[in-house]
Hints:
Blueprint lengths: L2 E6 L5 H13 L2 E6 L9 H5 L5 H10 L4 E3 L3 H4 L19 H5 L3 H16 L3 E5 L3 H13 L5 E5 L19 H6 L2 H12 L5 H14 L3 E9 L13 E9 L2 E8 L2
Parallel strand pairs: 1-2, 1-4, 2-3, 4-5
Antiparallel strand pairs: 6-7, 7-8
The structure holds adenosine monophosphate.
Amino acid sequence: MSVGFVPTMGAIHAGHLSLISEAAKTCDITICSIFVNPTQFNDPDDYEKYPVCFDEDIRKLTEAGTNILFLPSVSEIYEKGTRNLETYPFGKLEQLLEGAFRTGHFQGVGQVMSRLLKIILPDKLFMGQKDFQQTLIVNRLLELHDIKTALVICPILREKDGLAMSSRNVRLSAEARKKAPLIYHTLQFVKANFSDIPLDRLLEEAIHHLEDNGFKVDYLVIADENLNLIEHHNNKKTVCLTAVWIEGIRLIDNLILN
Ligand code: AMP
């Protein structure tokens, strides 16, 4: 009997449901958790404002084929509280990109994922490429603990206009929502010109385009699959990753270039 596990923080959208479908297709039992993990939020305001809509989530997840829903409280996951928790040697992986802009975020991811995995003991763990760096961190966590769970990385689901689905999208104003697809269009611009324009110039142009349209760019980089930054075009697996702010909402996205 195989168990598939999809961890989420709720505010369920079609992106989450695609992970549930994938799990239901390949596993006998699909387990989904909703847990807004306090230890991975470096910004208390972001934690406070994280959308919560349990009834709606439960309906969507049940319809999509979830067999078991796990909705633990903070004290169930962190029995001894959330202070002075264990830390993980993620090394440079947690200092780059998201790690550089969200201090402690990936330690929080490690803390919650190690607890959830210990409780659920899944055969397969389904996570989204949307959180590219997070998939590398979880992979490292599995290695560090010698956990045999297989990590399955699922593609990014997007709205029709290209915006990557995210629980945070509901917080966008109508104006910001109209602008937000520019993030994906910029990634596509980078992909289209990746082999033709020197990468420093290409990224500069892409960042200016976002800034000219009202985005604040935390980063827009091209990296290999281990997140080593790439300075020159090559034929290895390469990804363009970005994090931007629009009207006080932070959105991330990425696109595989080759
Ligand atoms: P979250 O609730 O944001 O923590 O996301 C739970 C899981 O869903 C993570 O593995 C995410 O990478 C994944 N996910 C979030 N957005 C998307 C999306 N647009 N497409 C596919 N998976 C996603």
